[in-house]
Amino acid sequence: MTDPSQLVAAAKPAVFWTDRSDAPTPNKPLQGSFSTDLCIVGGGFTGLWAAFQALENNPGRSVAVLEADVCGSGASSRNGGFCDPSLTHGFLNGLLHWPNEIQTLERLGRENLHDMLESIERCAIQADAQRVSEVSFATNEIQLQWQQEQADTLSAHGIEHKLLDQSAAHNIAHSPTYLGGLLSPGIALVDPARLAWGLRRAVHRLGGVIYDHTRVSQIDADEHRVRVGTEHGAIHAQRVIVATNAWAEPLRQMRRFIVPVYDHVLMTEPLSTEQMTDIGWSGREGLADAGNQFHYYRLTADDRILWGGYDANYHWNNGMGSEFEWGTGSHELLARHFFETFPQLEGLGFSHRWAGPIGTTSKFAATFGTMHGDRLAWVGGYTGLGVAASRFGAGVALDLVDGLATERSMLEMVRRRPMPFPPEPLRSLAIHTTRNALAKQDETGETGLWLKLLDRLGVGFDS
After folding, report:
1. pTM as predicted
2. 289: Cβ contacts below 8 Å, ≥ 6 apart
3. Which residues are registered as beta bridge partners of 264?
């Protein structure tokens, strides 16, 4: 048997999606000062969708995007490319936190995904976008019971789904670990880096200006303009959107509500025709398992398997940096789980491994805020389901800075923020206690006192 640690050690420490020869050349950083109608801080999915929608909806508007790294980097190109229509980290989470709005949120989510895919097609963005179903597999008796309860709730609210027995689960993909499953239609899969690159080109075509390697150090305002300061210049804007998500900078206010949680991902070498036959998976669905600590996985266009999740780590005081990204421990754990799920792929190599922060909130969904007389709006905390929801978040942020009372900007989800995370050391203590309680619940199926308390407060921790 091949040692998974050897396979992980042989994998390139780089993000598969961006490790390509046709990656776009970075834009030049900002030098000097000028004025603009709208300045967007952060060039990930939220920032790019905000720029794109602002320019399409108002072609005469001047828009500038400032990105601390390279436009489309970070979580926007490190993810698995799952485009879930849910704006609330799933129907059940939305029902828990916003029961009076859940039908509206579900409809807005479906409309958002439809419009997102329409924009991808209309702008000829080569992101390998495809509609598929998502299947969550139960791998023990506890998860089977959870899925039956989830299916009952979905049925009661008219949400389309299909509960799978063991035979039906094995018809999706061949794994000895599957005891059953829950199929949900209506998601999409994309190549996230190519989506970001395509949006970048679209923003340029519409007249937007993007500055890479331009870290914002300060934002302040007077009665006329909001000043966005950088090391080598400044932008004086009528309106500002901050879309830095897990980085939660340069606004301290964001750090109260959004914490970075590190996610880890492996990408296999391409599977042979024989290996593809061995695992089935002819429908190319997006797959996951049903635990609190869960794996998510999908096939790429060239028949690799992306395998990520499970080991979500928070580091002291919202810690982020390369020192948390390239260690092999979490990747070795993922590799062991991969071969337990697909033992028939024994010996298959991994071409890439990477890690990076996901922004999460205490309600597992995006949160919003405004400052400087509502001339600045910020958004973040998509909790791992931001590929599609970031487009919606961008639209809400535009409504907020433009003073528009739209259906989406008036949502309770938008107007009422989640409970903030406490300061350190309570922040680390609360998060790690919750993580351990969730792991214990996976083993026993029991909701302990800590999780019951969090349920009563309407808060939690996830990735």
Report:
1. 0.96
2. 136, 137, 138, 139, 143, 177, 295
3. 355
Q: Which two tokens stand for residue 428?
A: 């680390």
**CB atoms near residue 439 (< 10 Å):** 13
**Torsion angle, alpha carbons of 232, 235, 241, 245, to 10:** 0
pLDDT digits (tens, 9 = 90+) for 254-309: 999 999 999 999 999 999 999 999 999 999 999 999 999 999 999 999 999 999 99
CATH of domain 18-82+193-258+363-415: 3.50.50.60
DSSP 139: -
Residue 350, token pair as written in the block: 């991994």
Angle CA 436–441–444, to nearest 5: 125
Q: What is the pLDDT of residues 378-419, one digit of tens each?
A: 999 999 999 999 999 999 999 999 999 999 999 999 999 999
Q: What stretch of H or E contains 276?
A: helix 273-279
Alpha carbon 157 to its chain centroid, in Å, reads: 26
Element (H, E) at 172: helix 166-172
* CA–CA separation, 463 and 444 (whole Å): 21
Helix (H, G, I), strand (E, B) or coil at 392: helix
Q: What is the DSSP string of 421-442?
A: PPPTTHHHHHHHHHHHHHHHHH
3-state SS assignment for residue 377: strand
Residues in the chain: 463
**What is the C-alpha separation between 164 and 144, in angstroms, rounded?**
10
d(CA 208, CA 380): 22
Q: What Cα–Cα distance (Å) separates residue 217 from each residue in 93, 214, 229?
A: 35, 9, 6
Task: Give the helix/strand (H/E) hosting 414.
Answer: helix 412-415
Domain boundaries, the chain: 18-82+193-258+363-415, 426-457
Residue 216's H or E segment, with its range, is strand 216-221
Q: How far apart are CA 327 and CA 333, in angstroms?
A: 12
